[in-house]
Specification:
single chain; mainly alpha; two-stranded antiparallel sheet; 3 helices
């Protein structure tokens, strides 16, 4: 018995890219075989579309297995979500403690930095004032000497 064939005409609802891949591989159509089905998967073709052709018991079995897969997905997703929430809760508890420690360290280092700045600024100001004295004293002496000597 010859295997039924999937033709290009049967793929009218498929996207252009899928039809082009199919035509390139099977220009005269493809026999419905496991080998061709696996080749289609390897080529990246969507092989789920024939599900619509399933009837009666086959469709019921497909739906039963799909429901079972969905239930398992939902079960694992719920477990994954619960673990995510658990770890997030731990982080939310830990965050304020870590933040307080980091802030205290920052404040300590900033205070030390500020003290160093003030010390260096005081030295700079003292040197600046010393330099001003060296500049002003001779000028003041000259000014006063001129006044005392009658030269205003």
């Amino acid at each position: 018995m010859k295997s039924p064939i999937i033709t290009n005409a049967m793929l009218r609802g498929a996207c252009r890219e899928q039809r082009a891949i199919f035509r390139k591989e099977w220009p005269d159509g493809a026999a419905i075989t496991v080998r061709n089905g696996l080749r289609a998967v390897k080529l990246g073709l969507d092989v789920t579309w024939p599900i619509g052709y399933l009837k009666g018991d086959l469709l019921a079995e497909y739906e039963r297995q799909k429901a079972s897969l969905w239930a398992e997905y939902e079960r694992q997703k719920a477990s994954l979500w619960a673990e995510y929430q658990r770890q997030k809760a731990l982080l939310l508890v830990e965050y304020p403690r870590q933040e307080a420690s980091l802030w205290a360290e920052y404040e300590q280092q900033e205070a030390s930095l500020w003290a160093e700045y003030e010390q260096q600024e005081a030295l700079l100001l003292a040197e600046c004032q010393r330099q001003i004295v060296y500049i002003l004293v001779p000028l003041l002496r000259k000014q006063l000497a001129n006044r005392i000597g009658g030269k205003s």
